[in-house]
Amino acid sequence: xxxxxxxxxxxxxxxxGLTMIARTSEIPYFGEHTQLTILCDACGWKHTDFIPAEGxxxxxxxxxxxxxxxxxxxxxxxxxxTVRLVELDLEVxxxxxxxxxxxNVEGVxxxxxxxxxxxxxxxxxxxxxxxxxxECAALLNEMARIKxxxxxxxxxxxxxMGHSQIxxxxxxxxxxxxxxxEVLSTGPSVPVFDAGDLA
Length: 199
Hints:
- By secondary structure, this protein is of the alpha+beta class.
- It is about 20% helix and about 35% strand.
- It contains three helices and twelve strands; from the N terminus they run βββββββββααβββα.
- It has helices at about 105-125, 130-145, 180, and strands spanning about 1-5, 20-25, 30-40, 45-50, 60-65, 75, 80-85, 90, 100-105, 155-160, 165, 170-175.
- The strands form three sheets. Strands 8-7-10-5-12 form a five-stranded antiparallel beta sheet, with no helix packed on it. A four-stranded antiparallel beta sheet has the order 1-2-3-4, with no helix packed on it.
- Strand 7 (about 80-85) and strand 8 (about 90) form a beta hairpin.
- The chain starts with a strand and ends in a 17-residue tail after the last helix.
- About 25% of the residues are buried.
């Protein structure tokens, strides 16, 4: 379903209205979800979220990535989810432009690797042979070893909205305590619409 929302864009403040696309589908092992995407044609801003049909509680999902087979495990990440690779001390928190995605563990690794590679290039251009560039190279090397099954890392999804999950038999889910949920970022603030906007 596609409709126009008479709301200004939260980024560029354009009054042309926002386009909202809602699509409901069944995600294997995760249940029915509505993918809600809001777009601004003026500036290109886009926000995507995955909303489960059943109510969710703040949750954590963890999985030890220790074999190449784990790279294909499906990952559903909402815009409110913090992603951690524990032993590598890497973390991505939801920011103001955070968006949801459905990928797999390898796709999550690729996102980290892209960010690390960008930092490595910046470090090399600013300070040739710098310590930061060497640290980036070491991280990329270790991630390659994990992908090949020669090392391991714990992948953790922390979602105060409870919309994120790793879909694999080796993944472990639990509810977050109130204290854990309170310290987590919840991601971008999305325009609030009333039911009349959806008609």
